[in-house]
Amino acid sequence: MALTRSDVVDAAIGILDEYGLGDLTMRRLAASLGVQPGALYWHVANKQALLGAVADRILEHLDDDMPTGDWDLRFNELAHRLRAALLAHRDGAEVVAAAHSLRTGQGGTLALLSQVLTDAGFTPAEAELAALAVLHYVLGHTADEQGHAPSETLARTAGTPAAGDTASPAGLATPGTATPGTAEGAAGGPQTSDSPLAGETARFGFGLSVFVDGLRARLT
Amino acid sequence: MALTRSDVVDAAIGILDEYGLGDLTMRRLAASLGVQPGALYWHVANKQALLGAVADRILEHLDDDMPTGDWDLRFNELAHRLRAALLAHRDGAEVVAAAHSLRTGQGGTLALLSQVLTDAGFTPAEAELAALAVLHYVLGHTADEQGHAPSETLARTAGTPAAGDTASPAGLATPGTATPGTAEGAAGGPQTSDSPLAGETARFGFGLSVFVDGLRARLT
DNA sequence: ACCTGAACACCGTTCAAGT
DNA sequence: ACCTGAACACCGTTCAAGT
């Protein structure tokens, strides 16, 4: 049966999760589909476009069933969901960053965050800038996590969360994030597991809340 | 005369400024030095190490003649200097990001920002997290600027700054930043040049000040 | 100590030609 | 419409051998 563009993206995500971005080459992808490298170019313009499609897939359904409530609650929820979506795939943050997919991507992650802030009372220009700023923060922080941190995305497998650490801020259910590829540095580093900032989610939340506090301060 | 490691880094920066990161290959670098590709590996372990050395060079002297004063003033100064240093070389932000050079780099940009915040009264853990957060912001924002914005780093050539826009926040002299490579999108996009957030430096400063406001709010 | 020559094992992309 | 075969123009890295 003939290959489909969606098949190509599926296979790409498969390679990503199993071997990482460094091994996601057009030639390996073709091989995994049992096809010649040139065949891919019928379904996808080039590698950049493929990465864009992969990124769009990673960011799909980011705003499904969004809670209603204060802007800061919704803003936090979106940021945490974004991080969770990136963590759900090996090198997810790097892929999305490489694809420049947050600004333009189909889902419009930038637009989502921006909208919450204009609802809150910011001008469109301010809202977009602030949304971009936290987007950069989330991408950077999550890329760091995926670069050299002990994984933190099982949650479904074990009953007790790894170290008192869940991806969602409140008790809100995260969208269907399957288990990711194995992390490279599984041997725990010097994790100062006593401070209130231990746990990657808490560390992430700290930077996020500083930013949200700064935003709140300008609303008065 | 025999090549020196410093020569190699110099030549790498030359290629970077003239042709960009995409054209900075070991083979091109070797050719520009009139040497065989293999010769480079006597001076540099691999490409990653080379990029690290280039990044270190870009970030050199970031804290020369730092002003004294309130932590927020010094924090802002460092952030603006960092952006200026990145803008001083084509694809500077991407190089530094790729080199993971802010955390570990010789200069210790992370340590510098962190120190300012511990001086301000934050715990070491909080200070490092907050410093990392703005580092991510600066890198992301500046990478965006360098990716598709009309260049903004002449300042020395013309008497009147391009659009009421300088890299330094106050009248503080920036360290020796030479003129960068030409920007790719020289044709001006839809620049809404009326709002108070026009001008890349103002846009950068907005996100930065939101974060600093958030930090100040926790000091009470 | 420093570099050449030459190879190894890859890349992304194009494109005539086949079915 | 969809894919093969085969090439083009590259990569980073290694390493014996030369000087």
From TrEMBL, chains A, B:
Residues 156-199 are annotated as: Disordered. One of its GO terms (molecular function) is transcription cis-regulatory region binding. It holds the Pfam family TetR_N. Residues 2-62 form the HTH tetR-type domain. Residues 25-44 bind DNA. Residues 166-192 have a biased composition (Low complexity). GO terms for biological process: negative regulation of DNA-templated transcription; response to antibiotic. Keywords: DNA-binding, Repressor, Transcription, Transcription regulation. Transmembrane segments: none annotated. This is TetR/AcrR family transcriptional regulator C-terminal domain-containing protein.
